[in-house]
Specification:
By secondary structure, the chain is mainly alpha-helical. Helices cover 75% and strands 0% of the residues. It contains eight helices and no strands.
Amino acid sequence: MVFRTAYRITGNAADAEDVLQTIFLRLLRRDPAAPLPENEESYLRRAAVNASVDLIRTRKAEGRVPLTEAAAHTGKPPDDDLREGLRRALASLSPQSAEIFALRYFEDFTNREIAKALRLSQVLVAVKLHRARHLLQKQLLSFWEAGHEST
C-alpha cells in the first residue's frame, strides 16, 4: 500500500521504493516509548503521500529529474508530459493541500474519509480541494503552454 501510494504520486518505481524505505526506516528509528498511531493504514498512507511530495519538491528545488525520465525524454507520450506537469504542480501546493489532493484523487478517499484521517472538517477538505484543483489547473495550463510554444 505504501509503495502503491508513493508510485501514484512520484510516477517512478525507484522513487516509490525510496519513499517506502524512508518511511520504514523512520518507524524503526522512532522512540519505542512513543505511542503507536491509532489507525496504522491511515498513518502509513499519509506518510507515503508526505514523503512522496517531499521527494518531488526536493527534485524540483535541485532541478533534477529521474534518470529514466531523462533518458526517455525524447520519446515520451503526451500522457507522460501531463503526469510530469501534475507532479510539478502538486509539489507547489502546501503540504496539507497536496496531501488532501493525493488522498482524494490518487487514493480514492472520500471527503469524509479525508476529514476523519486528517482530523479536519469536511467543509475545510472541500475548500482545500477546490483551491488545489484551481491552482493545479492554472499551473498545468502554464506548463502545457510552455512545453508546446514551439509547435
